[in-house]
From TrEMBL:
One of its GO terms (molecular function) is NADH dehydrogenase (ubiquinone) activity. It comes from the Bacteria. Its cofactor is FMN; [4Fe-4S] cluster. This is NADH-quinone oxidoreductase subunit F. It is an enzyme of class 7 (translocase). The gene is nuoF. It catalyses: a quinone + NADH + 5 H(+)(in) = a quinol + NAD(+) + 4 H(+)(out). The lineage of its organism: Bacteria, Pseudomonadati, Pseudomonadota, Gammaproteobacteria, Enterobacterales. Composed of 13 different subunits. Subunits NuoCD, E, F, and G constitute the peripheral sector of the complex.
Amino acid sequence: MKKQIVQEETHPLTWRIRNNSKTVWIQEYKNKLGYIALKNTLKDMSPKDVVNVVRRSELRGRGGGGFCTGIKWELILNNKNNDICYLICNADEMEPGTYKDRFLMERIPHLLIEGIILSSFALGASCSYIFLRGEYVESEYILEKAILESRNSGYIGKNILGSGFDLEVYIHTGAGRYICGEETALINSLEGKRANPRFKPPFPGISGLWGKPTCVNNVETLSNIPGIMLYGVDWYKKLSYSNDTGTKLMGFSGRVNNPGVWEVPFGITAREILEKYAGGMQDGFTFKAWQPGGASTDFLTFNEIDTPMDFENIQKVGSRLGTGLAMVVDDSINMVSLVLNIERFFSRESCGWCTPCREGLPWIVKILEDIVQGIGRSGDIEILEELCSNLSSGKAFCAHAPGAIEPLQSAIKYFRKDFELGINVNIKNRLDIVSGIQCNFITG
């Protein structure tokens, strides 16, 4: 019992989870203080009170962007003018190397559902959608069952717990496109359109799903809401070691002894996660590089392994926290081959809406293929660097291209010799071949 109390106080996302990998269904969830926050909130608080609590908690989005959740909610309230609004849970988890949202949905679905209900109440949304990655078949089954359990218990539907608040929650499975992680592309897909990003402004908080104010939050973000409402702002802030409040699902994959995901406080160092939780490197393998938060984050080296895992500190050393699930690269891996695999993925997943992304990423893939085969040309590395510049933030329509080039630009920065080994100086310079052709990237 003492161990459970410690977990409850320090691990709001995971303390209820079973050790046998089985799903925590509604009765067990209620026995472990589930839906208490919802009951107390509907009884004693107004929607604005909830928004104020979440804003003061300084909860940041857990999908990778890290935007302040309370501020996003306030933007909805300031612009809805008694209009219909929607809450969308972004469960389209397609970042390579990331599996934290699936972990929550399949192990403790009612935590997410309670978070959705509380958030919908705060926003005044009577309809919420879970936009789920199509390949997450087991997650869909579990969520459907959990929603039915919640409805049968009076937590979803008309006049929830006698409060006068109505809510319907639906699951929409995507068609398997990475770009749907971008909130406006997700909204287009949900409307039955092609999953292209939209022009911003207007932002979804003003004109989103079917032209109505819409809030899009990540699975892990929404799963934090019940704990904040149950235990309060001060408790939540004290969970962290850094300026970013609360806990975060983080992990390590790759050639480690115990790959996985764990709930840890913000500010814990990458070294501690690697050595204490992931069990360090496997015998016979040496640490070479790591990505702190998914395939679209810059590589870092062992020199940055003692960096606190939070948004600000990871940015200071030249990368992004992203999803918080790190990947370690061992010394047996050729960095060019690894980056080629990553860029193939991003090239394939481009929606093709803007020229830099549509044309630039396949060009990157072609050059990397030549370098891997040892037939790279003099000047290829410089072309790759120029492409990274042309696809950087602000030069493409959305964040897909800037995220795609982060691993490439950092791999060239730290492991340029790996690229130089694939250059054959006897092959005619690629720039000579396209002499006289000026390729200007434009957005459109």
